[in-house]
# Entry
Amino acid sequence: MTDDYYELLGVSRDASTEEIKKAYRKKARSLHPDVNPSAEAAEEYKKVSAAYETLTNPEKRRMYDMGGGPDMGGMGGFGGGAAGFDFGDIFDMFTGGMRGRAQGPVPRQRRGGDQLQQLRIELRDVVFGAEKQISYTTAVLCGTCQGSCCAPGTSPTRCTQCQGTGHVQRVTQSLLGQMVTMSPCPVCEGHGDVIDSPCTTCSGHGRVIEERTLTVKIPAGVENGTRIQLRSQGEVGEAGGPSGDLFVELSVADDPHFVRDGDDLVTRVRIPMTSAALGTTIPLTTFDGERDLELEPGVQPGEQLTLKGLGVTPLRREKRGDLRVIVDVVVPTKLSEEQRQILERFAEARPEEKHGQVRQGSQGVFGRLRDAFRG
Ligand SMILES: [Zn+2]
Ligand SMILES: [Zn+2]
# Structure
């Protein structure tokens, strides 16, 4: 974070007014509260606006370039004598580094932290999308004090050490005259007020740790490791400050029957050698219920059949992928005497398949094998 006005706007020190205006417009577009409601953006927007205001005013810019604070435009140099000087401004002029610090007390409210929560989902949730409940431990607003940090019926009192300014000044003599150093008030820690009777429920923090349950909408088509951002569902800030965000990281459990391949689902069926030769219809369990899978006579090992529209619904789209079914053909390993004789007669009826005449694997067979391994 920088408070250098030129760096804030991203322009060189000799930039023209026109260049400064252009740089400001560009920054303001992305930081404007209407576009970016976050607290950081608001803070940045304020700084950038202050930089713009100073650098587009020739007199103010000249003072700023000399090392003066942003609000010194009307001071007119050193000629006026020490009586009219504000110590804070002198200090700013000499160091250039404390601008913005002496502006007033520091609010107690702080933005709460972001949180990361793991959520395990099933492949079915990826196919259709789902709503899931998650429970997590987080900081929530204290119900007793509603974030004021004070015991009921009490309120903060003005700090007598710093008179409510949040900072204390120390004046020292130096070669240049009086120097003022400023530091946060040690009594009120810079807040400008003091809580004499802290709320006992939250020990004066304005928030308490609690378990919270939330329904998370999971869009169809999410990937393993996708993080869903839930704005303001993280920790409530100190003293009722704005909440952080909750990030829900999804991990998709392995499915016993299906694997995902892009928008498609892939599964395997095992059928006996005879069914492959004769053709058959088998029941296939899908995420859309049971379907009849028709296998033509002569279906080959590794062959893929496609069931249109039974795959994954892609993220932010509607047309679903396909379900691809890879066929495994099971060759019997133990044959009874009778079965062996039948198969031998079968082989004799098909002269091209006699023992010793099996062709070496052709392109086609290996091609299918490759596909099967890929699937
Ligand atoms: Zn409280
Ligand atoms: Zn104080």
